[in-house]
Amino acid sequence: MNHQLSDLRKICLLGINPVTSAFAAALKNSGFRGELFGVDSEKIVKDAWGKTVITDGSTSLDEGLKNSDLVALGESKHLPEDTFAFAVDRAASDAVMLDMISNRHRLDRSIAVAARRDLHYIGFHIEPTLGTTADCSANIRAFFSGKTVLLTPQFKSDIPAAEMLTTVFVACGASVHSMNQDKFDERHAQFDLVSDVLKFLELETILRNCRPEQVVTQHLESRISQQLDYCSDSRKSEWLKELADNRSEVIKVLSTIEATVGNLRTNLLIGSLDEHVASVIQAGRALLSKAVSSEGPELIVNTGDSPRVMQAIATAMAEARIAIDRIERLTERGDGYFKLRLLSLDERARAESVLRTAGIETEQTD
Amino acid sequence: MNHQLSDLRKICLLGINPVTSAFAAALKNSGFRGELFGVDSEKIVKDAWGKTVITDGSTSLDEGLKNSDLVALGESKHLPEDTFAFAVDRAASDAVMLDMISNRHRLDRSIAVAARRDLHYIGFHIEPTLGTTADCSANIRAFFSGKTVLLTPQFKSDIPAAEMLTTVFVACGASVHSMNQDKFDERHAQFDLVSDVLKFLELETILRNCRPEQVVTQHLESRISQQLDYCSDSRKSEWLKELADNRSEVIKVLSTIEATVGNLRTNLLIGSLDEHVASVIQAGRALLSKAVSSEGPELIVNTGDSPRVMQAIATAMAEARIAIDRIERLTERGDGYFKLRLLSLDERARAESVLRTAGIETEQTD
Questions:
Q1: 209-248 of A, contacting B, C-beta below 8 A
Q2: What letters, b where the CB count within 10 A reaches 16 and e where it falls short, cover A213-224?
Q3: Is the pLDDT score of A324 beyond 50?
Q4: Does the pLDDT of residue A149 top 70, yes or no?
Q5: Is the pLDDT at A333 greater than 70, yes or no?
Q6: For residue B24, what pLDDT is reported?
Q7: Which terminus has fewer CB within 10 Å in chain B: N or C?
Q8: What ipTM goes with this model?
Q9: Is residue B30 a contact partner of residue B310, using CB atoms and an 8 Å limit?
Q10: Which stretches within A270-333 are classed as H helix?
């Protein structure tokens, strides 16, 4: 497996869109000078080639996949529906697959990928989630800046590839986390899906209580239609499939909602609502400060803003099998400084020694 | 009781802010030429006088209330906390009190007002709800345009005053509904408070499930702090007092939420989520079209865009004790056309005859 960007010769974008285009720009920013092959409709390929987003392209999936060391899957309405299965089937041995399709069905994905253990499948998620229209017009060079990228390597053997990709995104100003799929699913249900679930519950609650003889003002009408549009649209964009895929996690979330409703009722009835809300707010503030302080040990490195040094760090860490929990640009220290978060004090000590050997200076934050 | 704007000699703003200033502009727009007295800090009074928002002013509540036929209560940090009680106590006999303070405690209000049956107390609510900062800079002449005003007269005897105010707001481009306090409270709990309740439930649900070892990204952190800020801020702005005031309505809403959670769980478990969500969306669309079609009978009047004609309509209707459910500007018909919605076919027939007698042409919509 090639886990250094400079080892890769051909990278393929299956689907050319703002996300995969921004990824292509990020690859060049990190020093990639090989072939960047794009697959999409003839018009889109021509356009992307004209803008030097890609170095070559075609409408054929086979041409794109052939000998590609890294395949970035992106949404495109011009590619066939079974593009994913096709790509898994035909990808070159040992290739990295970065799945940049946001509404993937995770269960289907993992079943398909399980059949090709020689691939390095890595899920890609971005926060804040992309709003399709707003981001289409965004500057592709600034696309990742200030965003958080969550990478989900499928197996332990995919971690080096995830670390290579981490350095690419970090160099563009993103914060990057790697985690396994189970942890991501849990997190996704608790933090992202809960919000969709509650939007739907709000709509249903309002509709159940709303009687036609009640005054429905223009404002309320437009609020209800907005929520209807949101829920119908989320339906199209596979929101319901997501809920079904994450059923057991979502059911846990529903139980928590029920418990919080019961709590609120009790507190309303016994007149202790103020104390209850105050305690929740206090717990929230405590959690936020704990989340910040309970993070793993950190190490500051100076790359002199050179992607080459960044690559050297990633390679050294990957070879020593040291997982980087998170990499963040340290803007307050000037260009080229990065903070690496590691999983334990022991791993940090190993990282210090590995990086020293590679000629890279490190510094502890605490 | 004076229920024609031209009968009023002195109108007082207790608290000069964007809402009461916009109301003053609306009064002038409807032809009011009497005294417009403002009470606030010396600086604010001077400033409002300089901008001809008011014709006279002072820092003294007593001076403002003396002989005022209409008192508009507005938020002001310069007036004493017990301004409301003071105003109820000292207002001139038969005066109209328009309560433009958004975070009033309805229960406290109705108890205080019950002691002065000779006053005409009318609650004022606006949709979309005012965001304090955005609206401060808004043009006061366009303030009511496109908004919905809900007026809650306290007793039947306050309806003529509410109709006089209705014409003032309608002439500025607002849609106006009058309803009694109980109906408003029910509506408020079901449509406005449910949204606050669910925001709080979302926060509590996320916090209960969030463990410090979980990856808390910058984006999630900022989402949680936004929600914490919203809930803490709503606390300050009397959100909790509102929940407590409307306790029995809120408890009904909580039961509905529980029922919807249960429903969602069942549908998830038996695999019928798609059908369930589709049926809720369908019910929502049906309700919206029903809400529009089930509205009361309407009458179109042509005022020639003259506030005087509008006043004559309001007077004739008030004298005949015909309640106007809603008045809306009919922009598609050109300036001066308004649609009056009445409560029954019988009342519409009476309205037609009353308006004909007053020399005003009417037209049915259906």
A1: 209-210, 212-221, 223-225, 227-228, 231-232, 235, 240, 243-244, 247
A2: ebbbbebbeebb
A3: yes
A4: yes
A5: yes
A6: 95
A7: C
A8: 0.71
A9: yes
A10: 273-293, 307-319
In this structure, are strands A148-153 and A120-127 parallel, antiparallel, or unpaired?
A: antiparallel
- Please list the helix, strand and coil fractions of chain B in percent, rounded to the nearest 5, in that order: 55, 15, 30
Please report where in the chains the tokens 């229960």 appear, as a residue: B107
Q: Are B125 and B185 in contact (CB under 8 A)?
A: no
What does the pLDDT average to over A166-170? Answer: 89
Residue B61: per-residue pLDDT:
96
Residue A17: how many other CB atoms lie within 10 Å: 22
How much is the pLDDT for B133? Answer: 41
Which residues 291-310 of chain B have a CB within 8 Å of chain A?
291-292, 294
Strand B120-127 to strand B148-153: parallel, antiparallel, or no bridges (unpaired)? antiparallel
Report d(CA A244, CA B269) in Å as an integer.
Answer: 9
A185-199, A350-364, B134-148, B267-281, range with the lowest pLDDT: B134-148
> Does the pLDDT at position A22 exceed 90?
yes
pLDDT < 50: residue spans in chain B? 132-137
Domains and CATH numbers, chain B: 5-179 (3.40.50.720), 185-261 (no CATH), 298-364 (3.30.70.260)
Angle B159-A214-B157 (CA atoms, 0-180°, nearest 5)?
A: 10
For B83, residues 6+ apart whose C-beta sits below 8 A from its C-beta are B14, B15, B61, B73, B76
3-class secondary-structure state, position B57: strand
Query: In this structure, is the dihedral angle defined by the CA atoms of residues A283, A289, A293 and A299, taken in order, positive or negative?
Result: positive
Whether the CB of B124 is below 8 Å from some CB of chain A: the reply is: no
Q: And the tokens for B315? A: 């007077």
Those residues with Cβ within 8 angstroms of residue B308's Cβ, 6 or more apart along the chain or in another chain: B31
A331: left (phi over 0), alpha (psi -120 to 50) or beta: alpha
DSSP state of B131: P
What residue type is A183 in one-letter code? K
Q: Nearest CB to A232: which of B127, B243, B281?
A: B281
DSSP H stretches of helix in chain B? 18-29, 42-50, 61-65, 83-90, 106-114, 132-136, 159-171, 181-187, 194-209, 218-236, 239-245, 247-269, 273-293, 307-319, 345-357
pLDDT at residue A182 greater than cutoff 90: no
DSSP annotation of A302: E
- Phi then psi dihedrals of residue A145, to 5 deg: -60, 125
Where is pLDDT greater, at B13 or A103?
A: B13
> Residue B138 in contact with residue B18, Cβ under 8 Å?
yes
Distance from CA of A221 to the nearest CA of B (A): 7
Task: Give the integer Cα–Cα distance in Å for B235 and B240.
Answer: 6
- pLDDT, residue A93, reads 92
Interface test with B, best of A207, A232, A238, A269 (most B CBs within 10 A): A207
Confidence tier at A42 by pLDDT (50, 70, 90):
very high
- Residue A133 confidence (pLDDT): 40
The mean pLDDT value for A310-323 works out to 78
- C-beta of residue A10 within 8 angstroms of C-beta of residue A35: yes
What pLDDT shows up at residue B107?
64
Backbone φ, ψ for residue B71 (5° rounding)? -120, 120
